[in-house]
Amino acid sequence: MTQEEKRLQESRGRTTHWKRWGPYLSERAWGTVREDYSPYGAAWEYFPHDHARSRVYRWNEDGLGGISDRQKFVCFALALWNGRDPILKERLFGLTGNEGNHGEDVKEYYFYLDSTPTHSYLKFLYKYPQAEFPYDRLVEENRRRGRQALEFELIDTGVFAEDRYFDVCVEYAKATPEDILIRVRAVNRGPETAQLHLLPTLWFRNTWSWGLDERRPHLRGRNSWAVEVNHYYYTPRWLYCEG
Fold first, then answer.
1. What's the pLDDT at 223?
2. Residue 12 in contact with residue 47, Cβ under 8 Å?
3. What percent of the chain has pLDDT over 70?
4. Of 37, 117, 122, 155, which is the most buried if we count CB atoms within 10 A?
5. Using CA atoms, how far apart are residues 24 and 217, in angstroms rounded to an integer?
6. Cβ–Cβ contacts within 10 Å for residue 90, how many?
7. What does the longest C-alpha to C-alpha distance in the chain come to?
8. Side by side, which strands form the sheet with 64-69?
9. Residue of 88, 84, 89, 86 lying closest to 195 (CA atoms)
10. pTM tops 0.90, yes or no
11. What are the distances in angstroms from CA 41 to CA 47, 75, 104?
């Protein structure tokens, strides 16, 4: 029996909760029916990508290459900034069904490279352009094209010319169900030095703004490399950072 088979057996028997943490965090929660409170069911227009950085989700959270607990109370994901974008890259960008000439479509390059059944190991790859991300151009060009035309993809904008992008890889490995090692690596594929800000982010899903449960969790920085995580559903957890 392999170690992963043992973990699966323990998970099925509920003796050890190996699946408590996993890739349950969506890379995109904006524009979904779950977050639609519009009077006419216009989910795409009610909560577009432009709103996601400044509005609170009620039922979802999203992030790049992230993980969360099963209830999505505590979330961890990666945010990026190349020094040129007008906003942080915190979630996947795409077109709504009304914007795309072939309907709803994510305009990003990301890859789920590995995951064991208990999520004891996870690997995610995201390709981030060094040039300013062409949000407006992708929307405008795809909206202009008819149904019979090809889609206008991110690579068609030229932002990956001369390999001027970063390969950003996020890996997770569990020593125990609650002891998770996180490694983030970024590789510059371009011919010149380029700036990249890596912003690992820890946060709580907002469960207190809707009038059902006003208890608020707390994050406390204990020093320059440790954050204490206090959520009423769990005993205290810690995020430790190297360096």
1. 87
2. no
3. 100
4. 122
5. 20
6. 19
7. 57
8. 21-22, 64-69, 74-81, 197-204
9. 84
10. yes
11. 11, 28, 16
